[in-house]
Design a protein that fits this description.
By secondary structure, the protein is α/β, with parallel strands linked by helices. It has helices at about 25-35, 90-95, 105-110, 120-140, 180-195, 215-220, 240-245, 265-275, 300-310, 325-335, 355-365; strands spanning about 5, 20, 40-45, 55, 60-65, 75-80, 100, 145-155, 195-205, 230-235, 250-255, 280-285, 285-290, 315-320, 320-325, 345, 385. The chain has two domains: about 5-140, Rossmann fold (3-Layer(aba) Sandwich), CATH 3.40.50; about 145-385, TIM Barrel. The radius of gyration is 22 Å and the shape is globular. The structure holds iron/sulfur cluster (2 copies).
Length: about 400
């Protein structure tokens, strides 16, 4: 971590300074928009995943990280707007630059009302708060352990069977709903050991396939200090009764992935949620080729890069009473497809002394080395090829458990 990392204020920029935004995704584009609305011109975006020269974004050039070497450190002011604040964690990249900032206040205070501002308005606030949550420990290391998000899996079942599901549903031959008593015990233990969870994400499979999921949702909305409970659904099921009632809460957001003809109850679901005042958002998906279990031959260096650049390498997942660092690891291990890796998982079904559990969660959450699962995963970063989403298969894919050496 850079010792000089602070939250950006406009007074940090002097006339003649070169302002550079790290990253080129949603948060970087919002940062660009916020800076320009203050009359601060952005010289360029720097993106580590840039593949070709000449790319422009919002009218501004995008350059590769190698371009940093030629920049004058005294006149260059860097703002890390990479969604996962990876630059901020790469002190070797930042060592030459005394002025490196995060853009939390900048984004929170920006007026994005102008037309042409990036990111859909209903999604903008969430993206900014997601970024802010990741910046928080970098800006004010307090010894607190607050988790950005927790995926809470309520079922292994899905109403669709997508051949490339990155949560590996296509491999479940006999999917089960989660044991809710076990899930509640695990949640209680986990939340007692940390200083809060910003966002709970309820998912499956298809969470509405479990008619008793309302009980979990009520528990999660009962945690007063979490900002959001987001339910991820594929638009095939309109929940009824208690499950639908559990969604009527100001902190609930239902995110519907619109798979076109496959999301056969999409319109009905949207109308029903609207009629009850439930906040929802529907989006078309973009998929990467990340849904297959199989050993990938990589050098140790490539494996480390696969992990460190993975966009879900801190997406803690609670599945069947165990806590994992990412959904691929969770489901591949739950399926019994990987060699045993006790260091990659925390079993919350057994009772832990609070401090020991807290230390284990922190070690998993801040982990820097690849998981066993990474060896068998195609990875999830901007270099992973995109594919056609939601291609259906009739039967579960065959599963060949991988034994021995990881
Ligand atoms: S990607 Fe497809 S199979 Fe996977 S959870 Fe979503 S709808 Fe179900
Ligand atoms: S197994 Fe590794 S590379 Fe795959 S999704 Fe998880 S953290 Fe990312």
């Amino acid at each position: 971590m850079s010792p000089h990392l602070t939250d950006f204020t406009p007074s940090a920029v002097a006339a003649g300074d070169r302002v550079v935004v790290f990253g080129a995704g949603d948060v970087a584009q919002l940062t660009h928009c916020a800076l320009e609305s203050l009359g601060i011109r952005v010289a360029c975006f720097v993106d580590p995943l840039l593949t070709g020269a000449g790319t422009r974004l919002r009218g501004t050039e995008v350059v590769a990280t190698s371009a940093l070497a030629a920049m004058d450190p005294d006149s260059t002011c860097l703002i890390d707007a990479w969604d996962h604040t990876r630059y901020a964690r790469k002190s070797e990249l930042l060592a030459r630059f005394p002025r490196v900032f995060l853009g939390v206040r900048l984004l929170r205070e920006a007026d994005f009302d102008e037309s042409g501002a990036p990111v859909a308005p209903e999604e903008r606030g969430r993206r900014i708060e997601h970024y802010a949550a990741q910046c928080a420990p970098l800006l004010a290391p307090t010894g607190h352990l607050r988790l950005r998000s927790l995926d809470v899996v309520v079922t292994e079942a899905c109403s669709m069977r997508c051949v490339d599901c990155s949560n590996l549903m296509q491999y479940y031959a006999h999917p089960r709903h989660s044991d809710l008593d076990e899930l509640h015990t695990s949640l209680e233990q986990l939340t007692a050991a940390v200083d809060g969870v910003d966002e709970f994400r309820v998912l499956g499979g298809e969470p509405f396939a479990n008619p008793r999921a309302g009980r979990v949702i009520r528990t999660l909305t009962g945690f007063q200090d979490s900002r959001r409970v987001v339910i991820y659904t594929n638009g095939t099921i309109v929940p009824r009764g208690d499950l639908m009632e559990s969604l009527v809460h100001p902190r609930i957001l239902v995110k519907i992935t619109d798979y076109g003809e496959h999301s056969r109850r999409h319109e009905e679901l949207c109308a029903e949620l609207s009629s009850r005042g439930v906040t929802w958002l529907s989006q078309k998906p973009v998929w990467t080729d990340s849904g297959r279990i199989g050993r990938i031959e990589r050098t140790p260096q490539e494996l480390r890069r696969t992990f460190s650049d993975c966009c879900v390498n801190d997406l803690l997942t609670l599945l069947n009473g165990r806590l994992y660092l990412c959904p691929f690891s969770a489901n591949a291990m739950n399926l019994g497809a990987l060699p045993a890796a006790p260091q990659d998982v925390i079993d919350l079904r057994t009772e832990w002394p609070r401090n020991e559990l807290r230390a284990r969660i922190e070690a998993l959450y801040t982990r820097k080395s690849p998981l066993t699962a990474c060896t068998f995963c195609r990875g999830r970063d901007d270099t992973t090829p995109t594919i056609t989403p939601a291609v259906q298969v009739r039967r579960p894919l065959p599963l060949t458990p991988v034994k021995g050496r990881a």
